[in-house]
User: Which sequence fits this backbone?
């Protein structure tokens, strides 16, 4: 589950909403907060140690940030490192009863721990000993409550603003290709095709290898992740699971909605022209990266990452990618309204188990960590060394940038900026703290400005942009309610089967030599899924979205 966070800004994960707001705002007291406030001197906290799980093999409590946390709170965390499958280990612990005192735990696994009475109800502990946690949740703990009304864990607290500057489009073009074409407008897929085709004609080889037009990776489940993402975004559909939700909140599997196959028809066309890399349907991420790192891939579609960092290291920064957001002509882009709260069902809980020796002391520790100065410590490190304050905003230092570039494998643990999830701090992309500034350094303007290559900066400027987010098509925001984790086992089973059938059909569609037969190829998939109960699943999804809307109105 744990992966190193590769912070090449062009590989940040696409989020489904776009809410660009200013990063500075009034604090809760109504005054402008210009810098990291000095830690208040709390009542003395007695030193104590508690155990906690992690699947990060490099996690430690020896960093300067960890030492400062101990200094401020008296707490030391002893990590119980998970090797192998995370959920399996959590279940083994539950069976044996030897789980740590505090656990980061997935939503479905937490249900098992609740049933076994292995985690504590935190409701009264929070009310009696955690004023800062209460404040962070605006004195409303309903977000944390389960169906029995009890609280079995913490999630990252709500934020007042989301300013996600790491968003980007879904189709990337090499800067060299755009420069060669004179930086033309990129508004349609034909625009992309034209610049790629002209460049391939002029340069059939790059670095001794064959020039590749459009490519990405599609091995195993990545086929659906990459190709469906491209189809969905080109059609303008919001990221609402596998469904399209209409204005009456009726849900339909998006595979057969008007516009969904438009991108696949485009791939069919360029495949016939020799612009599509057919290995995209089967190659692994590593195989794709090899081609990309050689500078031979002119266009990447569907997200999933680029190779700008490697290109820079290979002295091919001129081939760095810029991501564009294209919506099919005549279609409207819809986006899910960004939530100011944690994605319940999609994020991990922080729970205190019945093995805790001193639950009161543990909740006091987390309450201390919910103070603004400690949230800043976890998200930014030390003022002066890790960041400075300029014009009221935190700005990463060149030292921090150098540390990331020179020690990417151990950066998070070495500098002590990998504790946000374990502290239940605001770690969501673009989340802001009560002072209005970014909760995490890697989502800030300063990090983007200092880590974006000069080539990309120049290319962006040709399109009137400073960040990749500036190139996004503005969509219509819609609130679909809280639906994460609501799917039934029957829906999950159908989804798995539907994706498998979709995966069998897509190659046939793209490689079909007679364009007049494309619709019938896709109609065959529709018939197969109807026979598997698609209409029933659509109805079940409709009920989930309509119920979510009712809940939101309460």
Assistant:
């Amino acid at each position: 589950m744990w992966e190193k966070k590769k912070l090449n800004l062009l590989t940040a994960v696409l989020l489904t909403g776009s809410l660009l707001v200013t990063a500075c705002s009034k604090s809760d007291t109504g005054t402008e907060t210009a810098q990291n406030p000095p830690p208040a001197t709390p009542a003395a906290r007695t030193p104590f140690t508690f155990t906690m799980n992690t699947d990060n093999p490099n996690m430690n409590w020896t960093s300067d940030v960890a030492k400062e946390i101990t200094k401020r709170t008296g707490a030391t965390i002893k990590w119980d490192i998970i090797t192998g499958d995370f959920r399996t280990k959590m279940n083994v612990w539950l069976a044996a009863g030897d789980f740590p005192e505090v656990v980061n735990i997935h939503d479905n696994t937490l249900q098992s721990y609740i049933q076994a009475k292995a985690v504590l109800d935190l409701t009264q502990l929070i009310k009696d000993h955690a004023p800062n946690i209460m404040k962070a949740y605006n004195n409303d703990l309903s977000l944390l409550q389960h169906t029995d009304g009890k609280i079995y864990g913490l999630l990252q607290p709500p934020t007042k603003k989301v300013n996600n500057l790491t968003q980007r489009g879904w189709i990337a073009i090499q800067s060299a290709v755009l420069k060669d074409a004179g930086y033309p407008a990129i508004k349609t897929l034909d625009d992309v095709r034209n610049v790629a085709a002209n460049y391939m004609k002029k340069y059939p080889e790059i670095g001794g290898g064959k020039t590749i037009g459009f490519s990405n990776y599609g091995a195993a489940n990545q086929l659906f992740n990459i190709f469906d993402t491209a189809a969905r975004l080109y059609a303008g559909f919001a990221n609402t699971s596998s469904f399209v939700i209409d204005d009456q909140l009726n849900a339909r599997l998006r595979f057969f909605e008007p516009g969904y196959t438009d991108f696949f028809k485009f791939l069919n066309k360029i495949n016939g022209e020799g612009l599509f890399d057919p290995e995209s349907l089967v190659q692994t991420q590593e195989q794709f990266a090899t081609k990309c790192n050689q500078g031979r891939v002119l266009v990447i579609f569907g997200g999933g990452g680029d190779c700008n960092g490697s290109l820079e290291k290979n002295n091919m920064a001129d081939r760095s990618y810029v991501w564009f957001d294209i919506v099919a002509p005549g279609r409207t882009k819809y986006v899910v309204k960004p939530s100011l709260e944690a994605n319940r069902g999609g994020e991990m809980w922080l729970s205190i188990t019945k093995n805790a020796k001193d639950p009161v002391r543990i909740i006091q520790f987390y309450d201390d960590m919910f103070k603004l100065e400690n949230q800043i410590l976890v998200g930014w490190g030390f003022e002066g060394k890790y960041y400075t304050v300029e014009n009221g905003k935190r700005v990463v230092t060149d030292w921090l940038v150098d540390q990331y570039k020179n020690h990417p494998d151990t950066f998070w643990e070495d500098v002590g900026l990998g504790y946000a999830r374990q502290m239940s701090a605001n770690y969501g992309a673009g989340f802001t703290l009560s002072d209005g500034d970014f909760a995490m350094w890697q989502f800030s303007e300063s990090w983007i400005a200092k880590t974006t290559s000069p080539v990309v900066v120049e290319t962006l400027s040709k399109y009137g942009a400073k960040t990749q987010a500036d190139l996004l098509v503005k969509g219509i925001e819609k609130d679909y309610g809280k639906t994460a984790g609501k799917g039934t086992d029957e829906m999950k089973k159908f989804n798995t089967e539907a994706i498998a059938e979709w995966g069998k059909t897509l190659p046939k569609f793209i490689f079909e030599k007679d364009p007049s037969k494309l619709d019938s190829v896709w109609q065959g998939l529709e018939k197969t899924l109807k026979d598997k109960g698609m209409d029933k699943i659509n109805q079940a999804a409709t009920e989930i979205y309509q119920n979510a809307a009712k809940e939101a109105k309460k």
